[in-house]
Amino acid sequence: MHPNLAYHEHPKCIDVILRLEECHRSGFINRFFGGCNDIKRELNECLTIEHQIKRRKNAEAAGERRRKVEKLWKELEENN
């Protein structure tokens, strides 16, 4: 399964999402016999890369917030 495929949430994967949706619209038989599997794998790879980038950015932001908090604590300890 994949997450909600809202275009605004996955800007780097829009082309793959559109191809998968088109493949799914092409009919049940095509989906049933794995006609969309390659596109689905490509989408999974794209979403994984996107998730890794997002996770890296979040970790960097969390590290920066942590450094600010530690600096404030250090200043408070020095003032007391």
UniProtKB/TrEMBL annotation:
Signal peptide residues on this chain, from the entry's feature table: none
Pfam families assigned to the protein according to its UniProt record, in alphabetical order: Cmc1 (PF08583)
Record keywords: Chaperone, Disulfide bond, Membrane, Mitochondrion, Mitochondrion inner membrane
Subcellular location: Mitochondrion inner membrane
Top-level taxon in the UniProt lineage: Eukaryota
An annotated GO cellular component: mitochondrial inner membrane
Main localization of the protein described in the UniProt heading: mitochondrion
InterPro entries, per the entry: Cyt_c_biogenesis_Cmc1-like
General function of this protein: Required for mitochondrial cytochrome c oxidase (COX) assembly and respiration.
Similarity section: Belongs to the CMC family.
Protein's name according to its UniProt entry: COX assembly mitochondrial protein
Species this protein is from: Diversispora eburnea
